[in-house]
Design a protein that fits this description.
The protein is α/β, with parallel strands linked by helices. The chain has helices spanning about 10-25, 40-45, 55, 60, 75-85, 90-115, 130-140, 155-165, 170-175, 180-190, 230-240, 260-270, 300-320, 355-360, 370-380, 390-405, 420-440, 440-455, 460-470, 475-485, and strands at about 1-5, 30-35, 50, 120-125, 145, 215, 240-245, 275, 325-330, 345-350, 365, 385, 405-410. The chain contains 20 helices and 13 strands. The longest helix has 26 residues, at about 90-115.
């Protein structure tokens, strides 16, 4: 069977797809994967055939999509389009330009699908892969979504957190009245027979890519975010079906990651371990939520947030136990720590094999609270201190407190940039106190162990593979049509 996977290159979206790809390849299936070049190595390591999205969507990437100066996350063509239309870099501008970009994405995506003739498409329902499920709908190819947020209700909070001070309802008219969006939407609907809505994320965080498909969700049903009745109705009308499969993780394997080895040595010696990682978006060059972004002046920068979180973790380890090991993933900025002093019992690396670090035994995981990191920690029964940067991370921070699996330290809110230095100092102190409290309180670990048991029964990779292959069994109509030239 031939399968095609398409998702964003951001690890929060990419990593959950890789264990599924590996399982499909090992079962004897032919798996192709469309993504940006930065993801090639990971994709080929699990046995898939890599296809560069920039080559597929040649209309979109003509003169666009050059990489950032740090060359860790490519500059998305969508950002070029925002600049071409004279818009400021913001989440609202992304919403305004999604269909402008989509119009240029669809021709190449359709050509690619018609040539490859996959039995099923596996795709990321979030914005940056919209062309593939819509092209699959146009061609009648079965498709399965892989949603790496906490269920169909997640965007109801994720969207507004990125739009502040606007709400989703505020954004609707601003998107609907943007002339390039209006014109692109009309042309797409007329040319391809689609029914794209005049706005984005309405009602209440609705994603227009779930369509009539099965959508796999990488959490358990009881850990999903609340779903409003309006969102539930919209998905019901689409015929979308959400299947909760839990975290999608690669099986344990021999590991040479230095951080993993240090953690295992520390545990064997009876030492406590704290791990800290602020994720891959806020530590990188993302223009809306990255290293230099300050949420439109409403908070400290990503840089200051990360440094305060790292420093607070180091402070807690110094005060609690200098025999404790701290392993910190800092990302790829040229000088991530600035003037933060690293204690002798800490190990700082650009990145580490996070799941293997957690599996090796961590007493507290200080995390940004992204969906993957949050569920991976719980799956490994690891208590957390969540330092959310943006979006769904805020919901997961609140969820950690509600479940009793850890504490949260909310990102500071500022009335003026003059408050930034004082806020960062206070944030560092708050992180230190939170880490110490979680270390000292056994109840957090007990609550995390309960969640680990629940997530472990969600089905994981085997359930995901089974649902994908079930969808692929519906591909006979598409295969017959394409074989006769009907597509």
């Amino acid at each position: 069977m031939r399968l095609l996977v398409n998702c964003s290159e951001h690890v929060g979206h990419l990593n959950p797809a890789l264990p599924v790809v590996k399982a499909l390849v090992e079962a004897g299936h032919e798996v192709h994967f469309a993504c940006l070049e930065i993801a090639r190595k990971k994709i080929e390591e699990v046995g898939a055939v890599f296809h560069n999205t920039m080559d597929i969507q040649s209309e979109l990437y003509a003169g666009r999509g050059l990489q950032d100066t740090h060359a860790q996350i490519p500059k998305l063509a969508l950002f070029d389009i925002i600049e071409e239309h004279g818009l400021e870099m913001s989440f609202l501008s992304i919403l305004k330009c999604l269909n402008v970009s989509l119009e240029m994405e669809l021709p190449g995506t359709l050509r690619f699908l018609q040539k490859l003739k996959p039995d099923v498409l596996i795709y990321d329902p979030i914005f940056l892969s919209r062309a593939s499920p819509l092209a699959a709908k146009i061609l009648g190819i079965p498709a399965v979504g892989l949603l790496t947020l906490a269920g169909p209700g997640a965007m109801c909070n994720h969207g507004p957190a990125l739009l502040r001070p606007l709400s989703l309802d505020d954004s609707g008219p601003l998107v609907r009245d943007f002339v390039p969006h209006i014109e692109a939407t009309q042309r797409i609907n007329q040319k391809y027979g689609l029914a794209l809505k005049p706005s984005q994320l309405l009602p209440d965080g609705y994603l227009d890519t779930c369509l009539g498909n099965t959508v796999l969700v990488t959490t358990s049903e009881d850990l999903q975010d609340p779903v409003t009745e309006a969102t539930r109705k919209a998905y019901r009308e689409d015929g979308a079906r959400f299947a909760f499969v839990g975290p999608l993780l690669l099986p344990s394997a021999p590991c040479t990651d230095p951080a993993v080895l240090r953690v295992r040595e520390a545990r064997a010696a009876g030492r406590r371990v704290v791990a800290v990682s602020m994720g891959t978006v806020i530590t990188a060059g993302d223009k809306v939520a990255g290293w230099d972004a300050d949420l439109d002046g409403q908070s400290i920068t990503g840089r200051d947030l990360c440094r305060a979180a790292w420093a607070g973790t180091f402070d807690a380890s110094n005060e609690e136990d200098e025999e404790m090991l701290v392993v910190a993933a800092l990302g790829w900025q040229p000088d991530p720590l600035g003037d933060v002093q690293v204690p002798s019992h800490a190990m700082c690396v650009n990145s580490f094999a996070q799941v293997e670090v957690l599996r090796s035994g961590v007493d507290v995981f200080v995390t940004h609270g992204g969906q993957n990191s949050f569920t991976e920690a719980l799956c490994c029964a690891t208590p957390v201190v969540v330092c959310p940067g943006f979006g769904d991370q805020e919901m997961n921070a609140a969820k950690a407190v509600r479940l009793g699996v850890g504490l949260k330290v909310d990102r500071p809110k500022l009335d003026s940039s003059k408050e930034a230095s004082k806020a960062a100092t206070q944030y560092r102190q708050d992180v230190c106190q939170a880490v110490k409290k979680v270390l000292e309180t056994p109840g957090f670990h007990k609550a995390a162990a309960i969640q680990a048991e629940r997530l472990g029964s969600a089905g994981g990779v085997p359930k995901a593979v089974n649902l994908i292959l079930r969808a692929a069994s519906n591909s006979s109509t598409w295969c017959t049509r394409t074989a006769s030239g009907g597509a």
